[in-house]
Design goal:
Oligomer: single chain
Largest sheet: none
Structural class: mainly alpha
Helix content: over 70%
Radius of gyration: 12 Å
Distance between the termini: 26 Å
């Protein structure tokens, strides 16, 4: 299932507004879009950069 559909279904079921000010929305987005594989040091650093980018996009488009 596409990530956008998964996010929409989860936030609808939980009654969460798609806004950057709702930490539950931010957590749902991050949980769905981030990989769950084991991380080495290099991958962890890359994941942190990706998370910061994602948080910036959420703030810009949903803030």
């Amino acid at each position: 299932m596409r990530a956008c559909v998964m996010i929409a279904r989860v936030i609808q079921q939980l009654g969460i507004a798609p806004t950057a000010s709702d930490i539950r929305f931010v957590h749902v987005v991050c949980d769905i879009l981030e990989s769950k594989k084991q991380l080495g040091v290099r991958e962890f650093t890359q994941r942190e950069r990706q998370r910061n980018l994602l948080l910036g996009l959420i703030q810009k488009h949903c803030g």
